[in-house]
Each structure stands twice: as C-alpha cells, then as structure tokens.
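I'll show a record.
***
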Amino acid sequence: MYCLYNAHGVTVDQASILARTYCIKILLILFSITATTPLLADEVISSGWIVPANTPFQTTKPLLEQVVATDSKTDLSHVRIKAEQGYWFIIDLDKQSQSKIEVIYADNSHLAQLDFYTLDENFNPLVEVNNDAYRYVNKVLPHALLPEDEARWAVIYARHSEDDRLSIGLATGNEFANLINKKLRNFFLITGLLLLCLAVVGTVYGLSHQAKSLYLLAYLMCVLSEFLIAKGVLNYFNIEFASLWYTKLQFSFQVLALGVINFYFIHYLQSQNLLNARQDKLTVYISLFCFAAILSCFMKQSVHLTVVILCLGFMLVMLSYLFFYWLSNTKKVVQFKFVLAWFAVILQTLCWQATLVAGAQIQQFNDVLLVVNVIAAVMALLIHERKCVKQYSYSLTHDDDTKLPNKQLLIKRLDSEVKLAIEHSLLLFRPAVLINARANFGYEHVNEQIKLTMGKLAQQLASMNVLCVEANHQHSRCIARLDDSTYGVVIIGKLELSQIEQFVCVINSVFAEGLTHKRIHLIDKVEIGVANYPLHASTSLQLVQRGLQALAVKPLHGERWHMFNIENVTLSQRRIAIASALKEAIECDQLSLFFQPQIYLNTGKVHGAEALLRWEHPQLGNVPPDLFIPIAESSGIISDLTEWVITQALQYQKKMIVLLPEHIVSINISAKDLLRKDLPVLFITLLNEHQLNSANVMLELTESATLFEGVDIKNALNDYRLIGVKIAIDDFGTGYSSLAYLSKMGFDEIKIDKQFVMNIEYSKNDQTICRATCDIAKSLGSYVVAEGIEDSQSMAKLQSYGCEVGQGYFFSRPLPFDDYMQWLEENLETTTVFVNDLKKVVDLIGKNNY
C-alpha cells in the first residue's frame, strides 16, 4: 500500500486503520441490535376454505356458498399455488377468535393477480374502506380494510404465472400497524447494514486494490439486490411484468452470489497455497456452471431447484476435498476457518431456496442467517486487512532480512530518551566483511550468518548498559540496522572512553570469527563511529547524523573507532559545498586557465606552456586544484571539467600559434577520463575546427594514472597517438612504474617532479635521480622536462645532465592567458635580438680568422 498524506497531515494508512476500527464498532452495534430484535412480528393467522377456479366472482359465487357449508377448513398461513391456476380463499370472520378484526392481508406482493372481497351474510360484495395512508404499504404487504360490523366473509382471489406460495392473515388496526412498522424497521436495518458493509468493503478495495475485496464487494451487491427484490422493492417502481420476473430475478442474484463467492474462495485457496496450478481449472468450471445457472433462470422453477442442487453438490465436493486436505495440512486453523465459511455460504443458499418452498415460515431464519453471514464476511476481511496493516507497519519499522529494528524505530526510541533528557551515546558499526561476503556468498546465506552473529553480539551486550530499542512479550532487541551494512547500539549514561573501548572490544571480538561459506572464510575489520547526546547533538536525528559522520572518518594510527569531531564535519561540509558549486562554476565560467612557460634550456627559446586550471569562487575564494580535482572525480563532474579544459586550451592554442607556430600546449588529463571513448572524438573535432596541428598538443598523465588498469591504458594511448597527439608522463619518480613499463608505454615526454629539482644543488640523491631520468629518457627516445626550476644553478645542473626543457619560477610564474600572450611576445623579441647579436659575433669572428 502506498503511504500518502492528506491535507490534515494524516497518512492514508493511518486513516484507513481508523476507518476500519470505527466500521468494526458500527457493525458490532448493528449486529447486536439485529440479534436482539425479532425480525418479524407475531402474525394473526387464519383458516378457511380453498376453491381452485379461474372464473370471475359472479360465476364462482354459487360454488363458494356450497364450499362453506362443509367443515373441510384449511390452514391459510401457508398455501402453495400452482402456475396459471386461480384460487379463491374464503374466511369466516365471525369464527375468528380475535376481536375487532380490521385488516386482512396476504404476505406476497409478487403475485400476478391478487384481489380482495368483503361479503355480507348473503355473500353480497361490500364496499371496501379506502385509506390513502396505506396505499404504499399495500405494495409491500397487500391488504384490505374490513368494513365495521358489516363483513361476514372475506374472499381473496390469487393467481400467478409460476408456482409460488401465499400466507393469509388477519389483524386489528394496531396489530397491522405494528407489523408494518417492524417489517419496515427490519428492512431498513438490514438494508442499511448491507449498504454499510458495501461501503466498508469498497473502501478496502479502493485502498488495497485486491481481488478478494472485489469478489466480496460483488457478493454483497448480489445479496443486497436479492434482498431488495425479495422484500418487494420493485413494486414501488411500477416495473412492467415485475411480478412475472420476480422469481427469475431473485434466483439470478442468488446464483450470481453463489458464483462470486466461489471465485472468492478459489482466490483464497490460491493465496494460501492450498491449490496448485492444475486446480486453477476449477475457476473455469465454476464460470461455466454459473453461466448455465443464469440461463436456467428462464426455465421453470423445478429446473431452478435442480440447478441449485447441482451447484450445492459441487460445493459439497469441494468441502469434502478441503476437509480431507485439512487432515493432512499443517495450516489446520486457516483451513478450518475456510471450511466453516464455505459451510455458512452453503447453508445460506439452502435457505434462499427454502424460502421459495416454505415462504414466510423460514424467512425469519433466512434474514438472520443473511445478517450473520454478511457481518462475518466483512469482519473476516477487516481482520485480515488489520493483520496486513500490522505486518506492513512492522515492515516499516524492521529490516526485512534480519528482522532487526530499523532506523525509523531507532529514532523513535531515541526521541523518548531525548524527551527525558537522559544522556546516551550512539555507537554505529559497519562490518566491512559484509560487502565481500554478499558478493561471494549471496544475500540469503549472508543474512542467515548475520542473524547468528547479531544474536551472539546481543547476548554479549545483554549484560552491559545498553538501551533496549524494541521490547515485547517475545523478545527484546538492543541492536538496530540503519542501512544495508550499518548497525547501531545505544549506550546509556555519560560519555566514558573506557566504556566505549569496552563496547568496541566486544564488537570486534564477535566479528573476529568472520563469515564462512563452503570452506571460504572471510575476516575483515569493523568500522566504528561514536556520537553523544547532548555533547554532540541536541536531537535524535542529529545524533544519528553525527554518528554517521564519525563512522565516515577512517581511523588512523591503529585506532579502532572514531569519535565525532566538528573539524572533520567542517571539512566535509566544505567538500560538499565545493562539489555543489563546481557544476555551477563550469556553466558560469568561474574557472580559468593559467599558462606556465616551458623553455629550452640550451637556447632559451619558448618550447610551449602547461595549461593549469584555476578556480576563484565568489564565496569560497581561491580553491586549489589539489582540493577540487579529487572532489570532481568522486562526484562524477570530472568529465565536464575535462571537456571544458580541453576546449579552452585548444581555443587559446589557436591564438598562441599566431605568435609561435611551433608552440606546444600541455593539457593534464585525469585518470577517470583517460578511458573515455568519446574524448578522442572531442580532440578530433576541436583540432579540425581550429585547424591545429595535433603534434603541438601534449597530454600529461600522472604516473599513478598510467598505472591504473595498464592494459586498457595502453589501448587508450594508442587511440590518442592515432590522432597525432603526444603523450607525457607527469610527476615521474613519485609512483612505482618500472623501466619495462616505460618502454611498453612509449611516452614522448618525461617530466621530472619538482620535489627532485628544487633541492638538486644540495641533495646527492636528487642529483642522482635527475641524471638517471635524463639517461633513461634518451635511451627510450623521449625528451625530459624538469619542473620547479627556481634558480640558475639548478638550471645549469639539469642542462649538464642533458635535460632539454624546463619550467619554474626562474622563467615565469603561471600567467593568465592575456599576460602570457604579452610575456610570449616580449620573450620572442628578446630571443630574436639575442640570436641576431649572436650571428653578428659569429660572422665577425669568421672575418677576423679569414
């Protein structure tokens, strides 16, 4: 079920629970009223004579006079009439024991013809008293008012198109009024009860959309329709031929109700795994039978009874099957309830058919059984839904895999401690072994193992000062599961490091055994973070957040756990702010490229420049690349950042080659982007767009990046070489690359890291490393670029080692593009003058020698 909120802030689940609770109370009240109230009043029955004849009154009058002369009276409280046969019923009003008889009535409003006559002593018709107050009641209970002190004989003529029944009674005015009132009261009570049940089941179906609720809804609609037809509601609508179709319609809804409830039971059997796939064919059989039963509604009543007997036979067969299945089934309680419910439906169907035979004599029992069955069905549905809601509520507060309390229940429990202002500490732990175990062993096995492990840990913690997160009559739990691999324990009392150490020792000792599956044993460390209330947090949510922040910090120097530290949070928040602002910085051009010149050490000419990324944020200030580049890699923004750097660098390169055609621009590439298949395509597009020589573009890769998945890196480098782009290995000497690795990759340029250059004049080790790097580069056919040259002595030593190119503050700091273009122009003029003067000196020396 979906959990939505209404305008008052109450969830739909909560609203449905309240609605079902009130509905159950209302149903119980109505049931108690119905059970304690007689459904029918005590009727005044009569006896008289019956004359079968289809002739009018004037023709039948002599025959009636002859019949009353005999003593062969018949009880008229229950009379069967045959189809298309007219009957005359004669009642001697003077022989009735009741005094002041005022009304004669016939308890059947569905007959095709029903006429009342009142006669005097000589069998002459008397004028009936017309009472407008009873004209609507006459459609439900046909009757006639007897003239005062004049009527001696009461005659009723009845005829119907099918076999039916008739009950004739006499009553005083007050008795008849009470009879009508009780009938109407019971009619509206049962109708209201059925409508309320329909509303309840409809609400359940609207919330759950389950087939069982739909079947029960259809069943209640059929029951309500049959009940209304049986009580003569169709007579109020003046429907033509209503009396002719009364029995057929009533029987149709009985059969439909029977078929729908069969579908409901089949669905229930399937949901309880009591029917297999082959037994699903029962649904088809029931459908065919219901169709045949509906067609039988157009047949004679004898056929109706035959069809119902066949249907009941089928249901009894299913009942027998369930009974024997119940004997061998473990779910005997569920099975017994189902058998009992099906038996109640069979009994209801038998009562429906019995009313066609016995009439009013069994109608009272039928109505009581109808009320009981409907209430029982709706109550069963509500109880089942209540159980589902409880299971759903349980799943909201417990983990499905381990059945431990989840984060929601933990926070609720912490809220109660915060309200009482009780000091406590939240200890969160994450067994790192779980990730590898699930990948190797599977979730099912690991969940079983983690249950056992948590059970052992709970036993160890039971004697310690821990908060019970969940306590009920079955068990109590002190461990909660926050997410897939994070668990928590609440320690009651003031924060004491010795106590925390004790808990850490217990947790580590339990998980030291690791997880085993098929002789594979995994053991790993447990990450632990601790936060305290009220020292670190003022609310339960904040305490959980602080605990997760402490858990995220990796312990250093052999620490087994980490306490929450506000400094780490500040740094983490700054990283988050940088990550969120970096995307905006790319889109809003807050980034810029600086260029640091690279100079040929022998000639002083400009070799090119390295493009360095800079970010000046309006609020964060100057953010160094060493800080935001790792954040960009971890947050997935590095691809956009790399594309921006490449695009800007090549646009600037187009302008720089105007001053220096052989100018080489060096661009740094992240290891995350090196294997991207679309990056070479971007280079090809931009090189063609700006008409640049690919040989004047250098890609600088850090040594750690080139060691990342070596085989794929080599293939990626080959893609760039096909374009014509040159490859350089940056920060050489800081990683772990071997000579064989350098030979296999075939770099065009090797850059010596500045940490080996800045102290080269004083450090023998740095001198050895730089000299060896230059020798290695020459042997591999690469040239060397030295970073971090800050004085002439360093430059002289590197030049003596055979280093071709250098960069550093001795030549120039990194410059913005416009400043670099100005520097480049000035440097070219200085270099041209120096070269011209050098030529003149060479020429002069040549002439003197000549």
Remarks:
- The two ends are 105 Å apart (CA to CA).
- Residues 1-15, 25-44, 294-300 have pLDDT under 50 and may be disordered.
- The longest strand covers residues 606-617.
- The chain has 24 helices and 29 strands.
